[in-house]
Amino acid sequence: SRSINLAVIPGDGIGQEVVAEGLKVLSAVLPQDVKLETREYDFGAKRYRATGETLTDADLDSLKQHDAILLGAIGDPSVPSGVLERGFLLKLRFAFDHHVNLRPSKLLPGVATPLAGEPEIDFVVVREGTEGPYTGNGGTIRKGTEHEVATEVSVNTAFGVERVVRDAFARAQARPRKKLTLVHKNNVLTFAGHLWTNVFNKVAEEFPEVTTDYIHVDAATIYLVTDPARFDVIVTDNLFGDIITDLAAAVSGGIGVAASGNINPSGEYPSMFEPVHGSAPDIAGQGKADPSATVLSVALLLRHLGYEAEAARIDEAVATDLAERTGKPARSTSEIGDALSVRVAG
Amino acid sequence: SRSINLAVIPGDGIGQEVVAEGLKVLSAVLPQDVKLETREYDFGAKRYRATGETLTDADLDSLKQHDAILLGAIGDPSVPSGVLERGFLLKLRFAFDHHVNLRPSKLLPGVATPLAGEPEIDFVVVREGTEGPYTGNGGTIRKGTEHEVATEVSVNTAFGVERVVRDAFARAQARPRKKLTLVHKNNVLTFAGHLWTNVFNKVAEEFPEVTTDYIHVDAATIYLVTDPARFDVIVTDNLFGDIITDLAAAVSGGIGVAASGNINPSGEYPSMFEPVHGSAPDIAGQGKADPSATVLSVALLLRHLGYEAEAARIDEAVATDLAERTGKPARSTSEIGDALSVRVAG
Ligand SMILES: CC(C)[C@H](C(=O)O)[C@@H](O)C(=O)O
Ligand SMILES: CC(C)[C@H](C(=O)O)[C@@H](O)C(=O)O
């Protein structure tokens, strides 16, 4: 019989609330014969304040035993900026070699967008997750003086770029439009830019059916608001991917519905799924958060583990729920979770 | 009697067309007693193809003699990506220490925006122009092999950050709302992020009337489409500034109306003014380009040289011209230039 052994990290702020709903929907959608085991981990601000720990080697060993990880959100105003981001989130992405950071954007019917007209938005960003300016390379000299110099080193390897580019080509190949756009800034960041561009062009030869395209990251932000329909699959570096996926989320219904997967395609380590939004301390504990992004992240998780039919049922349920919201009174986090659970079970 | 000794660099593609109109309007707006001298320089793709030169020491010596520089656009598909950008544009910004890269965004009445509703947009981005990931530091080893490693080093100095932050505070102080937002990614790029944040907080003490705010660059792209009215003055690093000002231009009427100044505030070197758009090879030579961004760059240039009344007349003329476009047939580049010349003279 089948089973899913899931690590659950609710984290901080609304992370707690939305993960509860994600699990509710997960239980509702899974067939009887699939045994779901979950173990909750207390990572985040509370544990950091109590113990000074963000993510220990023992934690990593323990997390490694799971089939996948569901994360709510990490971050709290009480913790200095960077401590939990570098010490937990990025540490985990790097330790588990989550080099494919998958962020789909689809504007669903009935969902509000800040864009005028009725733009068609249906693309996926494949963001590199283990290199670029995110490596923590760099440093500071003469800290706090008027002669301080701080550097950040973006590290890009042929190995790291090629595997994510290849993954993106395969995803483009599998979609009806078969189009892949490389987003970089190769006219300024010429060292990294040439590497990315050359690898992209080389791998393209193996995918003759995929139409390719290159856009500078600054221009990409323009197209995301003036012509988002031009995008099908985008592949880009860690930092550019961070920036354009927040914008992509904003134009395709907001971060309330933006899901993401931190994927280790080889399966050597468990992949992690999380909403794009943060812990939103301003609305935490009030039952106001929309759990849809987490629920959609559960769909990505199921798809990754091979439960395609269940993933599709969740996508469908969220789409219907969103389409029927107009004109109705706002519901609480758990009311939305309940409604989605009913839909996916039905 | 007063005089302006202007270096004119039309450059490539539509650069030629829009600069001609910028000069037309400049001549029309200047009072009789101001002597305008211009010298045209042939930098860009043509000269590079003919001579292999992008910008020589002799060129820099010659440009240095001018009061200011008006640039159209540089770049052509025939030249490999990066050659003219690094070899001309960035070389000039660095050589002339253009550390304040000024990019105002104002959505004028009657101007189309891709955003729904009627957003209020009126902010200025102060982008650092001589540091960050733009320094060209970094390199490549094992180029072209499967073991290639390419690095890009973002260099940030207390000196460089403080002067641009101070400039931004002064600009915020001079505006009615007196609000300054720092945009960075200090939770991930912690070395540079701490330097920027600490310097920002330190300088803030000297400007008690200015309200301050911090936003991560990814979140900033969300606000730029969901709540652009929250911004008054933004200060940010070279790369983040590049990205968010293209997005800012897109939401506030498009790059057809986005002007910029590469400013050396001390006046040791001439400042350079240019539209945010590029050379647009696809529409070059057809008289289709909108010269408004260049004309507004001329206004920034005049303001920088102390011709405030003339700058205001240009801003006004462009605003009126834009407001009266709706429903009228499209005009050519020179027709728009002619119309603006008449308006500013009147
Ligand atoms: C919180 C932060 C470290 C993270 C990132 O920059 O990757 C977040 O913005 C994201 O996009 O998942
Ligand atoms: C052409 C390029 C070097 C330049 C930049 O990145 O600064 C452009 O995008 C700009 O914003 O002026």
UniProtKB/TrEMBL annotation, chains A, B:
Q: What organism does the UniProt record list as the source? A: Streptomyces pseudovenezuelae
Q: Which reaction does it catalyse?
A: (2R,3S)-3-isopropylmalate + NAD(+) = 4-methyl-2-oxopentanoate + CO2 + NADH
Q: What is the lineage of its organism?
A: Bacteria, Bacillati, Actinomycetota, Actinomycetes, Kitasatosporales
Q: Does the keyword Cytoplasm apply?
A: yes
Q: What is this protein called?
A: 3-isopropylmalate dehydrogenase
Name the family. Answer: Belongs to the isocitrate and isopropylmalate dehydrogenases family. LeuB type 2 subfamily.
**Listed pathway(s):** Amino-acid biosynthesis; L-leucine biosynthesis; L-leucine from 3-methyl-2-oxobutanoate: step 3/4
What this protein is reported to do is described as:
Catalyzes the oxidation of 3-carboxy-2-hydroxy-4-methylpentanoate (3-isopropylmalate) to 3-carboxy-4-methyl-2-oxopentanoate. The product decarboxylates to 4-methyl-2 oxopentanoate.
What EC number is given for this enzyme?
1.1.1.85
Task: State the signal peptide span.
Answer: none
Quote the gene name from the UniProt entry.
leuB
Q: What residues correspond to the site Important for catalysis?
A: Y134, K185
